[in-house]
UniProtKB/TrEMBL annotation:
<feature type="domain" description="Methyltransferase type 12">
    <location>
        <begin position="185"/>
        <end position="289"/>
    </location>
</feature>
<dbReference type="InterPro" id="IPR029063">
    <property type="entry name" value="SAM-dependent_MTases_sf"/>
</dbReference>
<keyword id="KW-0819">tRNA processing</keyword>
<dbReference type="GO" id="GO:0032259">
    <property type="term" value="P:methylation"/>
</dbReference>
<keyword id="KW-0808">Transferase</keyword>
<protein>
    <submittedName>
        <fullName>METL2 protein</fullName>
    </submittedName>
</protein>
<comment type="similarity">
    <text>Belongs to the methyltransferase superfamily. METL family.</text>
</comment>
<dbReference type="GO" id="GO:0052735">
    <property type="term" value="F:tRNA (cytidine-3-)-methyltransferase activity"/>
</dbReference>
<keyword id="KW-0949">S-adenosyl-L-methionine</keyword>
<dbReference type="Pfam" id="PF08242">
    <property type="entry name" value="Methyltransf_12"/>
</dbReference>
<keyword id="KW-0489">Methyltransferase</keyword>
<dbReference type="InterPro" id="IPR013217">
    <property type="entry name" value="Methyltransf_12"/>
</dbReference>
<dbReference type="InterPro" id="IPR026113">
    <property type="entry name" value="METTL2/6/8-like"/>
</dbReference>
<dbReference type="GO" id="GO:0008033">
    <property type="term" value="P:tRNA processing"/>
</dbReference>
Length: 391
């Protein structure tokens, strides 16, 4: 039964991968009249004279001349770097948002400090909060929910340290999605362009739950206000993935799938490894991380003017947002350091055209699937079956 459950999980992950990335694996990428067996796309340009007949062509192979030209353009627009003192300047609207969020955070910290300084007051506040939000029954501490009959332990240990260890994991109660058998997290959900297609699938897949988070509180509110949003199978929350100390609303090692699509490129290169390491901890053994982001020398990189480069292959847009352009090796190294193994890892090269203006644009993306290794016994179904036989 254990083996069959693992197989069912992998089938679910495969279906979800096809939905969200809408692409699959391809061993060799080239221009050819023969359609690849498992393509990322099936529109192959065989006659250059027909290049403006469609908006996009798949599986484009760059000539040496095209690659050298791209390198030269990237070198030119990287000559003038943004001054160090100007690199942390944000647009005025975003600075005001951060100030409001900072004041709100400080207010919450002050309230928390005052509450924990007086044990009886803490318990009363916890009772009020729980009755208001959950109808009574338990008190929330440090992201975990503990029974009311454990109140004495909480007052003895008001910060809730090692709550799970002291009280026993079997006594921990529900968190959002705790009853689900398959759990998914989308990092950087934005306004929900991927969330709602996924929810359509989840409606027909009992036992599944979707978490989605974004740095922008406004985006999260848009997701929550959508008619398709339902807290029974989805939990949207504000989260800064760069803050290692910020807890997620669920324990580690419970996720089957993490979607990291066009998110990592917005993070400073010095922080990327830490983000990947933290996300890897959220995956259960056998869980999958699905990645898609900008590749080196994509048209978006070559279009930057001088003075927008922050550091090598890292740029700032006009609206203040950042973007990094990856190589295949860089991505592989990050996930490998985080302890994940490659399932799929490729460069998706396409030719995008503007038929009206007769403009050609070389698009480059990195698309990958990385998996958290299973324990040795689960990697060998025969060994697992043999062990169960003697139990």
């Amino acid at each position: 039964n254990c083996v069959f459950r693992s197989l069912n999980k992998m089938n679910f992950i495969t279906r979800l991968s096809a939905l969200c990335l809408r692409k699959s694996k391809m061993q060799q990428r080239h221009q050819s009249s023969r359609r690849p067996a498992v393509p990322l796309g099936s529109r192959i340009l065989t006659d250059p004279c027909k290049v403006f007949e469609h908006n996009m062509w798949d599986h484009m192979q760059w000539s040496q001349e095209e690659e050298e030209s791209a390198k030269e353009k990237a070198s030119e627009n990287s000559l003038v770097k943004v001054q160090w003192e100007d690199q942390e300047i944000l647009p005025e609207t975003r600075r005001e948002e951060l100030k409001i969020e900072e004041r709100s955070s400080e207010h919450r910290k002050l309230n928390s400090t005052n509450r924990f300084s007086q044990k009886n007051e803490m318990f009363q506040e916890g009772e009020k909060y729980w009755k208001k939000n959950y109808g009574g029954g338990s008190t929330s501490v440090q992201g975990y929910v503990c029974n009311k009959n454990q109140a004495k332990s909480l007052t003895d240990n008001p910060l809730g340290e090692n709550c799970g260890e002291e009280l026993g994991l079997e006594q921990l109660e529900s968190f959002p999605g705790s009853d689900a058998t398959h759990r998914i997290l989308e990092v950087g959900c934005g306004a929900g362009n991927s969330v709602f297609p996924i929810l359509k699938v989840l409606c027909n897949t009992p036992g599944t739950f979707l978490y989605c988070c974004d740095f922008a509180s406004g985006a999260v509110e848009l997701v929550k206000s959508h008619s398709s949003y339902n807290s029974a199978w989805c939990s949207a929350f504000v989260h800064d993935v760069c803050d290692d100390a910020l807890p997620y609303p669920f324990p580690d090692e419970i996720l089957d799938v993490i979607l990291l699509v066009f998110v990592l490129s917005t993070i400073h290169p010095d922080r990327m490894q830490g983000v990947v390491n933290r996300l890897a901890k959220l995956l259960k053994p056998g869980g999958m991380l699905l990645f898609r982001d900008y590749g080196r020398y994509d048209t978006a990189q070559l279009r930057f003017k001088k003075g927008h480069c922050l550091s090598e292959n890292f740029y700032v847009r006009g609206d203040g947002t950042r973007v990094y352009f990856f190589t295949k090796d860089e991505v592989w190294n990050m996930f490998n350091v985080a302890g994940l193994t490659e399932v799929q890892h490729l460069v998706d090269r396409r030719l995008q055209v503007n038929r009206k203006k007769k403009v050609k644009m070389q698009r480059v993306w990195i698309q990958s699937k990385f998996q958290k290794p299973l324990p040795l016994s689960l990697n060998n179904p025969e060994e697992t079956t043999e062990r169960h036989r003697y139990r």
